[in-house]
Backbone:
């Protein structure tokens, strides 16, 4: 059996292993993250205490498809929250990821703030063909690649999956593809966002790097300013602020459950592949 923690960052849910004896493989992660037949999650992270005098935390992250990702900011906030709950840190800590080291601060029992660098490059406008119709989006990397589509008509009926899925792997983006974010700015101080996440291959309830990408596009287009309150699909609000030359991302990060992963959680058949009709 494997000890696990289940956490949620504004609806982005994760499985976490704290200093496990072994790192799970791609197939195990994919099985554990599959909803309905296992615990289910948007991804999994492994958390360890950093060796040496500097202290802090080391975090590695995998999407639900079992493949690694350099950065997941909601996951990073949850990793810091788990460290606080385990007594590994008190009030503040740093989390090292493949995309860099981030300072985390516990605001209260269910909120964590990260200090993050402001995006270095301005968003790049791109035009895609979607079933014969041109679609304009803005591309920028925020640790991982993102597309942002301003959607002034409102997000209730936005084609997050129908349009997000083909854009996520558009040939113009190369083999890595990108996360796809639909955003609306009701006022310069507020943003609404829905995200189709690569690696999950579906809409998620929140995406921290997507929130930063959307904020960067809003600032670039003169539609937003910091501080920015951001409503996510999960109903939670995240806050993007400014501290010195960098930004902050703050909001919900909570422990949902902990327990033991039994061997059966990695079992079950693969998803059904339906035969074609006549």
Residues:
């Amino acid at each position: 059996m494997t000890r696990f923690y289940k956490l949620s960052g504004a609806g982005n849910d994760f499985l976490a292993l704290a200093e496990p004896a072994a790192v799970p493989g791609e197939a195990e992660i994919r099985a554990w993250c599959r909803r309905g037949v296992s615990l289910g999650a948007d991804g999994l992270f492994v958390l360890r205490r950093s060796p040496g005098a500097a202290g802090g935390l080391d975090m590695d992250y995998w999407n639900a498809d079992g493949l690694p990702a350099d950065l997941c900011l909601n996951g990073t906030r949850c990793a810091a929250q788990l460290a606080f709950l385990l007594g590994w840190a008190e009030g503040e800590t740093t989390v090292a990821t493949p995309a860099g080291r981030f300072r985390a601060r516990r605001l209260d029992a269910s909120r964590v703030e990260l200090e993050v660098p402001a995006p270095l490059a301005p968003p790049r406008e791109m035009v895609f063909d979607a079933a014969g119709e041109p679609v304009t989006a803005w591309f920028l990397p925020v640790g991982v690649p993102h597309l942002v589509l301003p959607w002034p008509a409102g997000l209730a009926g936005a084609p997050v999956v129908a349009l997000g899925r083909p854009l996520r792997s558009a040939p113009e983006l190369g083999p890595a593809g990108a996360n796809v974010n639909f955003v609306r700015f009701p006022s310069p101080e507020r943003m609404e966002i829905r995200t189709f996440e690569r690696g999950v291959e579906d809409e998620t309830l929140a995406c921290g790097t997507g929130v930063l990408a959307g904020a960067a596009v809003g600032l670039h287009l003169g539609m937003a300013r910091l501080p920015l309150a951001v409503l996510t699909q999960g109903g939670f609000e995240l806050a993007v602020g400014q501290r010195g030359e960098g930004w902050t991302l703050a909001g919900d990060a909570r422990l949902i459950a902990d327990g033991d992963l039994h061997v059966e959680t990695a079992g079950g058949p693969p998803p059904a592949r339906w035969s074609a009709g006549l």
